[in-house]
Design the sequence.
């Protein structure tokens, strides 16, 4: 279906090859999972198959495509602003009209696709009325409505909660198996998607370094210190514990059975409780907020406090008010009732608030103020001292950003933008770091790096308050809570928090709850 | 009101709605006779309430501000007339200058209300369908602009707020504003590029497709009345009916043929309510009586 033959590609604004000598064949009906670290060229490779999505030139080789451009559909990682028109029905009509479908054909297509995706009730909803998962489902339906031969997916689940992500991936799998549509899925982790793919490839610095069947690829990357962090928690635990040679990926049921069979050989490594400094910096009391007079409270009498040196993570489905809570605390939105005090002073009209906290928004690009990565770091350093070029270079080096220093922050990949914004926050060194989905778009090694950076910051009495859909990342926090219906549960340590969760918990916890109920991540289980 | 609005939207197509909208915008621009513009104002206000949107309260507040500001501004720059109502050193308010100011304020407000109704009744696809029949490049610019104006406002507000968390240095207000504009421009360009990618993935730019509109009786009625009204209005303007010598001190309120012009325009402007009302009554008295059922499908479609 697709063949890259010694293909090299260079972006118009870059001196470096973004794809280097790519040799890759994708057959009809394949479900190829393409992974790689942030900025490795995954998205660039994907976009080569859709004309006009990349601005640059092929410097060597060819791409053989056994289908027309119109038969290739692309779905981006961005959930918002993907609809040109007001509602899904108009959007589908817009796509079909562009492809010269007659009115009768359009009507039939919309009927078919809406039934297949179960979105009949959403056809007339506007973008603002849809949740992130629904928007992405509509975008997927839009990509499928023209009956494509190839479906290109660029990190489609990166902005969705775990349940919405699973639903979307199941739908992609259904499309692949029932309709024989070739799927190329670019992802930055392997948590659930390995179940649906039949092939896996790794791209590194623009080169394909591995291209195998899923089982063989997963076992092979376990031997690689860098890529083993990409493995799903279940597969990682299974391989780390050396429990046999079963076909990967393992589902929770299979892993649970293996754990029960080897129960005597494995032990749970108890997590050490962290001492709380008990020095409260932020106090929120009976905080309520709603967007409209008639609307119900999206934040409903929420109370909590944040102590020095502690990290807090808020989990919950999309659209329950996690981001709104951060926006209210930071006074971007003003609460209707309740109080927020930082260092015992109300945040209302308090200019110190902006010095004492830092917000990493869901869209990190909103924070950028300069034309280059170098400029961004320089700007932040200049807020506290006069800096020289060499000092800026030193900081860039420290955070591994030297290679990107002359690139515009807006040209970075989603993960790179997220990481740069976080580095900016750490340079500012505020009393509290508010992070809205900080792992979005980051590859597993970057997430580990993020954990290290946050631990360093916490050790210096900083406070981290994050919203996250990434439950494995959430286990690294001192305290966790779940938000739903505007309410916030009491903060608990992760082991306590996940103990009574049935659906909203980590895969390791689901699989090992019979034998090791406190285990949350792969390294909680060890050989005796 | 919501039911009437729904009935109107259900029984008219995009082409007739757009014709109606263009004509009411022109009507609110053409006349400055006080009787006509007040009649137009009242009917536009009625339709604006009828097409109530989420942001209507803010929009109406904004309209009141514009109304008051226009009156004050005109009273200051135009102090002609002999019937003094109120006098201060360097300022004189006469009944003539007040009438002029009110006329201009109503004209502005009428235009704002006409655009409010336009915004409430139209959607991106209507304009795209019409423009793309022959002017595809304008259609694309239109789509991008319509999508981007609210987006740029959001970017500006978010950036302005988040900038406070990055910069703690006191900057000159003007310099800060200019910096902010430059940052917002950079971000907007990045967003613009993203939108252009979205259009590419949706197949935009393929061979042109001629959209066809199927018109029913209601569409023909709405389009005919719209066109008749605009022709009538143009003739009235040609015969200098409905126009007063604006800015002069001899503007007067009188009732004559101008009332007929006003009535004609009122009839056109309230057409959505009439059509929606007729549809609703038709449903209430006829159709609903033959579709009484509790089947799930009937419930869903009721």
Sequence:
């Amino acid at each position: 279906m697709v063949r890259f033959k010694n293909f090299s590609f260079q972006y118009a604004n870059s001196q470096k090859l973004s794809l280097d000598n790519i040799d890759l064949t994708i057959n009809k009906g394949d479900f190829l999972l393409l992974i790689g670290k942030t900025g490795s060229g995954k998205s660039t490779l994907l976009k080569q198959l859709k004309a006009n999505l990349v601005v640059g030139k092929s410097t060597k080789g060819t791409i053989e495509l056994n289908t027309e451009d119109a038969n290739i559909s692309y779905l981006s990682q961005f959930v918002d602003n993907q609809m040109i028109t007001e509602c899904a029905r108009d959007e589908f009509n817009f796509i079909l009209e562009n492809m010269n479908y007659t009115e009768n054909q359009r009507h039939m297509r919309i009927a078919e696709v809406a039934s297949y995706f179960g979105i009949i009730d959403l056809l007339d909803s506007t973008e603002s009325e849809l949740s992130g998962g629904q928007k992405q489902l509509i975008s997927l339906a839009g990509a499928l409505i023209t009956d494509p031969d190839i479906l290109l997916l660029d990190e489609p689940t990166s902005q969705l909660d775990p349940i919405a992500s699973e639903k979307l991936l199941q739908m992609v799998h259904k499309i692949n198996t029932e309709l024989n549509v070739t799927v190329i899925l670019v992802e930055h982790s392997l948590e659930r998607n390995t179940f649906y793919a039949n092939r896996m490839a790794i791209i590194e610095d623009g080169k394909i370094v591995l291209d195998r069947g899923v089982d063989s690829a997963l076992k092979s990357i376990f031997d690689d210190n860098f890529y083993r962090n990409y493995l799903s928690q279940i597969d990682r635990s299974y391989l780390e514990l050396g429990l046999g040679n079963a076909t990967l990926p393992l589902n929770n049921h299979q892993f649970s059975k293996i754990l029960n069979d080897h129960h005597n050989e494995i032990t749970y490594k108890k997590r050490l409780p962290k001492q709380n400094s008990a020095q409260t910096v932020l106090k929120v009391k009976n905080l309520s907020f709603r967007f409209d007079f008639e609307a119900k409270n999206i934040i409903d009498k929420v109370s909590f406090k944040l102590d020095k040196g502690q990290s807090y993570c808020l989990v919950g489905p999309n659209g329950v008010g996690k981001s709104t809570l951060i926006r209210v605390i930071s006074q971007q939105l003003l609460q209707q009732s309740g109080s927020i005090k930082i260092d015992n002073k109300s945040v209302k009209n308090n200019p110190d608030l902006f010095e004492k906290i830092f917000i990493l928004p869901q869209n990190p690009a909103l924070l950028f103020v300069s034309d280059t990565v170098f400029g961004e770091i320089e700007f932040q350093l200049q807020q506290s001292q006069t800096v020289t070029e060499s000092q800026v270079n030193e900081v860039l080096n420290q955070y591994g950003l030297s290679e990107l220093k002359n690139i515009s922050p807006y040209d970075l990949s989603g993960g790179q933008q997220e990481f740069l914004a976080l580095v900016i926050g750490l340079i500012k060194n505020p009393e509290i770091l508010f992070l809205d989905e900080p792992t979005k778009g980051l590859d597993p090694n970057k997430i580990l790096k993020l954990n290290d950076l946050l631990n360093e910051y916490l050790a210096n009495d900083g406070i981290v308050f994050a919203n996250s859909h990434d439950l494995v990342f959430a286990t690294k926090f001192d305290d966790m809570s779940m938000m739903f219906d505007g309410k916030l549960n009491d903060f608990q340590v992760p082991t306590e928090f996940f103990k009574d969760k049935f659906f909203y918990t980590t895969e390791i916890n689901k699989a090992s709850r019979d034998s090791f109920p406190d285990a949350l991540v792969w390294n909680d289980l060890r050989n005796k | 009101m919501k039911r009437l609005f729904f009935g109107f939207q259900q029984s008219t197509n995009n082409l007739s709605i757009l014709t109606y909208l263009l004509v009411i915008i022109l009507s609110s621009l053409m006349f400055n006779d006080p009787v006509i513009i007040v009649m137009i104002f009242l009917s536009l206000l009625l339709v604006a309430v009828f097409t109530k949107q989420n942001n209507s309260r803010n929009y109406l507040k904004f309209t009141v501000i514009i109304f008051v500001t226009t009156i004050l501004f005109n009273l200051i720059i135009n102090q002609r007339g002999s019937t003094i109502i109120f006098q201060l050193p360097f300022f004189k308010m006469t009944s003539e200058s007040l009438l002029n100011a009110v006329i201009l304020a109503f004209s502005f407000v009428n235009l704002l209300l006409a655009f409010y109704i336009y915004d409430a009744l139209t959607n991106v696809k209507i304009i795209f369908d019409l423009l793309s029949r022959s002017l595809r490049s304008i259609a694309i610019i239109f789509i991008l602009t319509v999508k981007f104006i609210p987006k740029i406002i959001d970017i500006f507000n978010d950036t302005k707020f988040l900038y406070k968390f990055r910069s703690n240095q006191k900057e000159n207000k003007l310099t800060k504003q200019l910096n902010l504009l430059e940052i917002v421009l950079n971000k907007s360009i990045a967003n613009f590029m993203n939108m252009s990618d979205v259009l590419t993935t949706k197949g935009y730019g393929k061979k042109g497709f001629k959209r066809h509109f199927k018109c029913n009786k209601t569409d023909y009625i709405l389009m005919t009345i719209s066109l008749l009204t605009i022709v009538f209005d143009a003739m009235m303007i040609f015969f200098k009916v409905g126009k007063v010598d604006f800015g002069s001190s001899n503007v007067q309120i009188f009732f004559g043929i101008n009332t007929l012009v006003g009535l004609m325009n009122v009839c056109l402007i309230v057409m959505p309510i009439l059509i929606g009302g007729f549809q609703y009554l038709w449903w209430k008295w006829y159709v609903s009586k033959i579709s009484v059922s509790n089947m799930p499908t009937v419930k869903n479609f009721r």
About this structure: The longest helix of chain B spans residues 136-166.
